[in-house]
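During the no-cost extension, the postdoctoral fellow (Dr. R.K.) reprocessed legacy sequence entries with the updated structure-token encoder. One reprocessed record is reproduced below for audit purposes.
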Amino acid sequence: MRMTPTYLLTDPEEVKRLIRENPWVTMVSTTSAGIVASHYPVVLEETAEGISIVSHVGRPDEQLHELGQHEMLLIVQGPHGYISPGWYANSDLIPTWNHLTAHLYGTPELLGDEENFAVLHDLVHHFEQRMPQPVSLDVDERAARRIARGTVGLRLRVTRFDARLKLSQNKSPEVFDRIVEALAGDGPYSSAALAAEMLRVRAAAVLEPSEDDATDYDATDDAAS
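Re-encoded structure tokens follow.
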């Protein structure tokens, strides 16, 4: 991602929050056959030191990705949306795209059959616990174990991450408020989730760019990309 100091997200706890709330990730590997991408749910290991996630892939994705043989990139995408220049001052005509994004890097560890089944069990429980009548693999463990043989579990201990929190931090408080109001409304680009993230930024007192960041600013900071 483009290096823009104003938008850097360096707090591991905020990255963990992003993973918890947006568990559908893109897995990218550069293999001997070229670039491979897949999409799977993940669960954050809350008791681990650092950032660690567990997941699974369906066979034969473990071969396509050459899992365990090299570093993998996981892309986590939070709320995002188009920001119209119509919400800015009259002299500002360049739109942008606000977003929360994290790139996580690490070499996956392949899990044994028992740990993989435990991860699948926890994955189902993690998402089912909100349901009025949660489903569990315990209902028919024998059938669940048979299905689990078609998957390969993995653990990714994140060795480094590159994250961005691009939420109009470079705008004046008045413009910031207009953007939040528009996103929270019922217009064609409304996004209540994105508006809520912007309010989190203000509450965390990271709205105002530093003097150095203001010096580094150019029009491409607000390009729609």
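The chain has one domain: 5-170. The chain has a mean pLDDT of 90. The remaining legacy entries will be reprocessed before the final report is submitted.
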